[in-house]
Design a protein that fits this description.
Protein name: TetR/AcrR family transcriptional regulator
Strand content: under 5%
Organism: Nocardia lasii
Distance between the termini: 33 Å
Number of strands: 0
Largest sheet: none
Number of helices: 11
CATH architecture of the largest domain: Orthogonal Bundle
Order of helices and strands: HHHHHHHHHHH
InterPro entries: Homeodomain-like_sf, HTH-type_TetR-like_transc_reg, HTH_TetR
Keywords: DNA-binding, Transcription, Transcription regulation
Structural class: mainly alpha
Helix content: over 70%
Length: about 210
């Protein structure tokens, strides 16, 4: 990549982040469903078309880490250590994320959690992301195990592993909405994660070992 191309890419990323930041501020202040694309464009000092070029769907302005969320579990499987199973890798990374109170697993704070739960559109978009994440994980597991195209095992394993993450995310959101602090939630989720992943050990403990 040339210097000019690198500068152009950074400028585009900065514009994207600026638009997303302005949009999120408006969403938190007034609620997702009450803010228009035109108002976001005005707040970001860009044309309305610029907003839609970067974010074809309004929901993705609020959930701008959606692509990372979708690829997160598959990336963990691809990057797992030699001798490590997919389950062990996902459990290790999840527990580290709980300790760090990572926003990618749901530690987003009460205002953001309320913005999500108050909007049927955002709740629906999160479900779409979750389905896409499960499919991405299934592909990664199929590749990791050299599974045949008609082998259902990677899809079953992905459904189980993604299901654990889905349940834990819902618990984080529930506790956040109840007003618990990040430290309180992290303490509870550490134990819940050990239980949840432990329930899969008998079936997936030796699956997709690198």
């Amino acid at each position: 990549m040339t210097t000019q191309q690198g500068l152009r890419a950074r400028k585009k990323q900065q514009t994207r982040e600026h638009i997303s930041d302005r949009a999120t501020a408006l969403f938190l202040e007034r609620g997702f469903d009450r803010v228009t694309i035109a108002e976001i464009a005005a707040a970001a000092d860009v044309a309305k078309m610029t907003v839609t070029n970067y974010f074809p769907r309004k929901e993705d302005l609020a959930l701008d880490l959606g692509e990372m969320f979708v690829e997160q579990l598959a990336a963990v499987v691809r990057d797992r250590a030699p001798g490590q199973s997919a389950l062990a890798a996902l459990r290790e990374v999840y527990l580290a994320a709980v300790a760090a109170q990572d926003q990618m697993i749901g530690f987003s704070g009460l205002p953001f959690a309320k913005m999500i739960t108050d909007s049927p559109a955002l709740v629906a978009r999160l479900r779409e992301f979750d389905d896409e994440r499960e499919a991405a994980l299934a592909r990664a597991l199929a590749q990791a195990t050299d599974a045949a195209p008609d082998d259902i095992t990677p899809r079953v394993a992905a459904a189980q592993l993604t299901g654990v993450h889905r349940v834990l995310l819902a618990e984080i959101m529930r506790r956040t909405m109840a007003g618990e602090s990040g430290d309180e939630i992290a303490a509870a989720l550490t134990e819940y994660a050990r239980i949840a992943f432990g329930k899969l050990e008998s079936g997936l403990g030796d699956y997709a070992v690198r």
